[in-house]
Amino acid sequence: MAILEELLTILAAVGMSWARMTVALIVSIIFSLCVGIPAAVNRVVEKIVIPALDILQSIPILSFFPIALYVFIIIHPVIGPELAAIFLIFTSQAWNIAFGVYKSVRLIPPELLEASNALDLGLWRRLSSLYIPAAFPGIASNLPPSWANGLYFLVACEIITIGEAEWSLFGIGTLSTSYIMAGRVIEFIASLVVVVAAVILTNLLVFIPVMRLSERYKFEERAAEIPRVWIERVSGWLSRMARRISFSLSPRITLFELRIPSGAPRILLITALAVVVTLLGHSISGRVSAGVTLAWAQDIVEAFQRLGVVDPLVMIGFSLARVSAAVAFALLWTLPVAILIYEKGMLEKILIPLFQIIASFPATLILPLIAKAVVDLGLPLELGALLMILLGTQWYLLFFLLDGLRGIPYEEEEVCKALAMTRLQKLRHLYLPRMLPSLIMGLIVCFGGGWNTLVIAERAILGEFTWDLGSPGIGRMLSIAVDEGDLALLIAATIWMAGFIVLLNRLLWRRLYEKAVKMVGVA
Amino acid sequence: MNGPSIKEPILELRNIVFGYRLRKGENIRIFDDLSLDVKYAEFIGIAGPSGCGKSTLIRIMAGLIKPEKGEVLFRGKPLKKPTPRIGIMFQSPALFPWYTVLENVMLALIHEKDLSENDKIERARVFLDMVGLTAFESAYPAELSGGMKARVALARALVSQPDLLLMDEPFSNLDPLTAISLRREVESLWLNQSMPPSSVVMVSHDIEELVELCDRIIVLTKRPAKIAGVVEVDLDRPRQRRSPEFYKYVDEIYTLLS
Questions:
Q1: In A143, A161, A378, B191, which residue has its Cα 20 to 30 A from A31's Cα atom?
Q2: CB–CB of B94 and A433 under 8 A?
Q3: In CATH, what number is assigned to the domain containing residue B223?
Q4: Which domain holds residue A66?
Q5: Residue A328 contacts B where some CB pair is shorter than 8 Å
């Protein structure tokens, strides 16, 4: 009976977490429609919305969470944490859906727009009979990756400690962490199994049917193939998911259609955003006076002064080294594996579904396990951090590389064969050039995931137990600020980190990507 | 007839059997015991209804596809894999977009260990000059027109100085004027005995193109492909498409096809 009870608890926890994610997903869809359609229809809106979305998806969500939490708790102390959790999940699900809506609506053939003009459809009719149906495929295909993203962050936002105050929401993240901390391995494994099963079921029962339904809303003639056998289905959505992630996270849209902000304005925008969010929180709470607002601004300025310039740079340096090491390691194994899978069709059938199931699994769930194992076994803490970051990033890279390889036109393969190239020659003349853009894109996404994981990997409070690297790190700084309830410091550190990431994206990654696309001559 | 008259085969297909297996387990026979010869200094055309396996046949000749049964002999020896002695030009130019025109052509010299980098550049330039693209050697494929890309593909197929050139619908994606000039170039290259290739095999669905260029046209039946007939074209070069004799051959091939 105890087993059954435990299982019921796990199921209830998964149910609660799923409910949170569903609410967040619905909000994401509404948000995406409200933002994506105007952006696709109106040039002015487009110029504001698209770069803003691009920034929003490139900053580490986890670091903004305590700020959001603070705001929501001011709104309502009881349901505040719940709202904050939903908000965080929303921020991890919304951007790619919004991009999807924007893209789909942009794809509406001009004739259809002209027809609706000729019919003189009103705003509501236009929305209900043209824009929303047109946006449907863009939403549908982004559901699985959004769900996976949400799941990743869900675990992190169910338990929150700010200073003395601690909130823990009932859900699978809280439950599995408590299992691990109590050393209840069997229950922990059971909860993992239930999560995997729930992910697969959700996709089979909800997302795949929705995606199938959305096929008929597409403007392209050729419908995408949705496989039939269930394992193929799973692998199908997963590969689709990987592709979608690759698309939604790719800065292509902004790269080629718009180029507004350079590094500096972006940081300003982020700073402004952070300030607006905090001010908004205050004004909503109804306790704001000009004096309080000013005091806040002063707090943040003072926090920046406390941080100085050298310390944050050192922390970022350490963090960058960690993420780079993890990414380098990921590259080391994914590159040969991707090529092997591409060349051997049989391997693909076995390994890809397997990898995709593992990849769909929220790595954040296993982080407590790694933390505990590393400490118990007395392994170097840095190794634990490396492993955590690796778990959060490596799959992206593998799927991106595979995507690049799969894009190789058959004729080019045939030329290599006709020229009797050796494998090494083929690697040099065909694989590497063809992979280059998706390799860089994969690295961008990989680094993005790495920065996000950093917020947990460098320091995390897991129940009674504190995982702490001890050495400098910007993620650790964030965690400490949260722990001490020092929101001004948190905002300052977040701006440092987000600013650096945006700068890195702008100055290094995008340039590299553009260069690669230009050099290779393929997008 | 043109060229040296050493009438022995450069390439022999002996009793080729080949099929594709569909997912349902059904086998599609493409060739069932097909044999044919390509002789030295011969320009051969292959015609046949669409889907009869013309492109597959070219790939078997190139060593890109292995037949299930039967033998491919190149200069008397079994052909196990593609060799630089056989050049191939595909229906699409299939140039590497990240390499310049010159680099694309040099790629075909990848196995020439004896040549220095400079020798390779020299050799590639000779062939680019031959197809009239000297001025474009540092251009990238994306900057070229369809006809120019086809010329690069031709230079790449010939730079290893093959004895045999295989062409799979090489002119089908080109505009008519470009196709005319490219056909002329291929013909004059083949006629020039000091230049490769000795023999050419061309697959095409354009019957007039075949009659214009080929000594011998092998007409295939639909699947599994057998030889419906062989038409020997005995006209002086360059051949005039408007002459009645020309049309006699064209009609003969159409009769075999239907």
A1: A161
A2: no
A3: 3.40.50.300
A4: 2-520
A5: no
* Closest among A518, A431, A517, A521 to B142, alpha carbons compared: A521
Contact list in A for residue B98 (CB cut-off 8 A) is 433, 519-522
Question: According to the model, what pLDDT value does residue A288 have?
Answer: 47
Domain end marker among B106, B139, B161: B161
Domains identified in chain B, total number: 2
The answer to whether the CB of B44 falls within 8 A of the CB of B38 is yes
What CATH number does residue A513 fall under?
1.10.3720.10
- Interface confidence, given as ipTM, is 0.81
Alpha carbon of A509: minimum distance to chain B alpha carbons (Å): 20
Q: Which domain holds residue B209?
A: 1-85+164-258
C-alpha distances out from residue A232 to A215, A345, A426, Å: 18, 14, 30
Same structural domain, B75 and B194: yes
Helix (H, G, I), strand (E, B) or coil at A108: coil
CA B8-B9-B11 angle, 5° bins: 165
In-domain check, residue B90: no
DSSP chain B: --S----SEEEEEEEEEEEEE-TTS-EEEEEEEEEEEEETT-EEEEE--TTSSHHHHHHHHHTSS--SEEEEEETTEE--S--TTEEEE-SS----TTS-HHHHHHGGGTT-TTS-HHHHHHHHHHHHHHTT-GGGTT--GGGS-HHHHHHHHHHHHHTT--SEEEEESTTTTS-HHHHHHHHHHHHHHHH-TTSS-SEEEEE-S-HHHHHHH-SEEEEE-SSSB-EEEEEE---PSSPPTTSHHHHHHHHHHHHHH-
Q: What stretches of A344-431 show up as alpha helix (H) in DSSP?
A: 345-360, 367-377, 381-406, 410-418, 423-426
| A117 interfacial to chain B (CB closer than 8 Å) | no
* DSSP code, position A468: E
pLDDT along chain A (523 residues), means of 10: 83 92 94 91 83 72 71 78 86 85 84 79 81 86 81 76 73 84 84 86 82 73 38 44 40 30 48 64 53 73 84 91 93 91 79 71 78 86 88 80 83 89 90 87 81 82 78 86 81 84 82 81 55
Among candidate residues B135, B161, B187, the one where a domain is terminated = B161
* Pairs across A and B, CB distance < 8 A: 48
Check if the beta carbon of residue B105 is closer than 8 Å to that of residue B152: yes
Which DSSP string corresponds to A114-154?
A: HHHHHTT--HHHHIIIIIHHHHHHHHHTTHHHHHHHHHHHH
Query: Structural domain tally of chain A?
Result: 1
Contact B111/A at CB under 8 A: yes
Do B129 and B199 belong to one domain? no
Query: Are B79 and B107 members of one domain?
Result: no
Does residue B53 fall inside a structural domain? yes
User: Shortest Cα distance from B75 to chain A (angstroms)?
Assistant: 18
Between CA A357 and CA A335 the distance in angstroms is 20
